[in-house]
Amino acid sequence: PDTVLPNLLPMYARKSKHPSSELTLMTVGLRKCPRHRPELNILAFQPWTSLDIRQKVDAALDEFLTIVLKDHVYSWWRDLSEDEEFVDELRINFRFLASVLFRRMKKVDIPHLVTHKILHAGVQHIDLCIQAFEKAGYEGDLQQIVLDYMGSNIHCAMWSRKAELEYLRRLVESLFPCILPPQALNSNLIDRDQVTFLHMSTCALVRELLAGSVLLPTMDAIANPDLLNNLLLIFFDNTPPPEATEAPSPLVPFLGQFSQPRAHNQSCLHLKLKDVINPACQELLYPFMQFLKSEAAVNVLQFCLACDDFNRRILNPDVSQSECVELHAILKNLYQSYCAPTATDRIKFDDDIVEALREVVEGPPEQIVRLRTSTPLF
Q1: Are strands 251-253 and 52-54 parallel, antiparallel or unpaired?
Q2: CA–CA separation, 165 and 216 (whole Å)
Q3: Does one domain contain both 200 and 77?
Q4: H or E element at residue 251
Q5: Could you read off the pLDDT of 130-153 as tens digits, one per residue?
Q6: Which structural domain range is residue 305 located in?
Q7: Contact status, residue 58 vs residue 252, Cβ threshold 8 Å
Q8: For residue range 29-80, what is the model confidence (pLDDT) as tens digits?
């Protein structure tokens, strides 16, 4: 037993202290797998993985974030440099932030939020206004009457416009562990002074953009009585919404187009991938492997190395029958490790590629030569 105390409540089953071994979107699929650290969760580094939305919604978000970059980043960055790498990094961070928020929003119980929180706060606010107006004898400016009635109990964000902006800044800072990539908060990668500078600059920019350009206008819109009245009219209107005149737009990766890099490295000094992953060149392969570990993508490197070795062997025109059997077993292991839906180190490939590999894996060993003229492993 897990405890020396007896279970005196037969109808109550204690929850297991050990997590289940269900498959998750981790670099390695099983929670109990000892091969990888549990913090190397692909969603912690790429929360947009397997996150699709309608194309029109994605285009609207793309347009909104593009306007934010144009008005609050390009307006001063163009005076410093024409390089797009800095803005490309911001695009990735914005995609990370929006993906995290979107995933959390999908978990929100909307009916519970409305009935237990929004309505409660709204009724409490109305009751406070009525009490303040009654105490003032139903005369004067309602807003000033409520502020005077609350006195020192007023929220700090209501002191002034400056206090409201400062409150939103502190609120955004408290969300940094949830909305920023782990690399932005990790202080074990490079020297302390450089990390402190990078951390402060990244956080300061994100904080100002979110607090001053997103949250503050949003709070102003929410506090607009005309907007609230229109929302209430729409909410209580029994008129059915107009029927859709066109089919729903297709699903696309969340902000995939927005995060596409605009900068292109034209330097003749850049390295090719085949030179970096060459096992004979450890001075390049080892740091690249350490980088992939920090990105929870070691399985991609392992697949590339195994696939490269497999390609060299299968392209041999003098491959024997015994070698075909051996290559078929290697391919089956590759498929089960990286391509199958239940693979522990699954990599997301196109469905047609996975299906082509599955047909070869489930076929006789002689069919392994089909891969010479097909595209799945190239």
Answers
A1: antiparallel
A2: 7
A3: yes
A4: strand 251-253
A5: 888 888 887 888 888 888 888 888
A6: 273-373
A7: yes
A8: 344 443 444 444 667 778 888 888 999 999 999 998 999 889 888 888 888 8
